[in-house]
Amino acid sequence: MRRKVSLILLAFAVFFAAMSPLLRWYAFPRVAKVPADQYQDMVLEAKDATLLDYGTMTAKKVPQVTVVQTLKGNVEASEKIERTAGRDVVVWDSLSYIQGPDGEMVSKLPERYIFDAHTQEPVHATGESVDGEPVTREGIEFKWPFMTEKRDYEYFDAQTRTSAPIHYEGTQDFRGVDVYYFEQTIPWTEVEFPKILPVEGVTLDSIAESGTTRWYTTVRRFWVEPVTGAPVYGEEIHREELRGGTLLGDRDKVTAFSGHVKMREDYIDHTVDLVRSNRTLVLLMTTYLPWGFLVLGAGLLTLSLYLEARGRRPRDPARADAVEPDPVSA
User: Fold this and answer.
1) Which pLDDT tens digit goes with each residue over 267-278?
2) Spatial contact of 215 and 240, defined as CB atoms under 8 Å apart
3) d(CA 222, CA 235)
4) How far is CA 72 from its chain centroid?
């Protein structure tokens, strides 16, 4: 009986020991993915910012500029691309909407971001765009890969339509969550004007005829939870200028926007709570269950060997030679 039990325990030990690496290195990369129907919004603010008054073409101090960012998963578009791509694809339609202290639009920048649901690598397909113009992204945007590494990544900048390194600068504690801090600096670069401008009657053609150009620089900072690859906080030190041309009269340049853009406090709390919850789910497949199965397998193996050893132990000779008494009958 002991031998039968030991064999059963040995079978379970082998099963759990085999499941440990399979769960971490086979199942997790295939199961962990960004959902195609995800929707999220984020509000950022720049206090005491500088903003261009297009009526007078002069820069003015304003108490606050608000940036509303939305990401909406386009399930229909992702399913269409998956048919030819042969892998799980996510399509995010995003919009960055900037408004001044009076609630009026300053600018808005729509994007379509297409990427692999598992690795977050860009997928090049029809529809990939910024402000309606086709682009070919390299590197990541919005989200880092699951199990983010302590290294630099290529990060796509929507204003310049190019990718540049975003540098790993160390590990920090952000409100009780261990995060990796990344920073990217985009030097002054000439960029395109948004297709939708805040001033009626001013078009891209009229700006092009005036000879005025738009320039941009930013310092981009992210605090990323490495298990999920999700930023728990982000901010930018953002500046824009208009330079040259007849729109500025005798001036060489004028500040169009300057401010330190930060996530609003209530969105920080919500994001941290959400990332903590998702982190637990990812750790369940990458750490808790694999190590648990490994320890359980080792325990079952030990118990199996112990029972097998006891089953093979020689019997006591004194007991083996003992003669059992004959039964007594009435």
Assistant:
1) 999 999 999 999
2) yes
3) 7
4) 14
The pLDDT tens digits for 209-260 are: 889 999 999 999 999 999 999 999 999 999 999 998 888 888 899 999 999 9
| Count of H-run helices and E-run strands, the chain | 7, 12
pLDDT the model gives residue 74: 96
Query: Token pair 């406090």 is at which residue?
Result: 265
The residue with tokens 């150009």 is 213
Contact by Cβ (8 Å): 152, 167: yes
What separation in angstroms does the CA of 201 have from each of 54, 107, 193, 303? 12, 15, 15, 83
**Token pair of 227, please?**
């298990």
In whole angstroms, what is the distance from residue 79 CA to residue 72 CA?
A: 15
Say which amino acid occupies 188: W
DSSP secondary structure, 79-104, as one string: HHHHHHH-S-EEEEEEEEEEE-TTS-
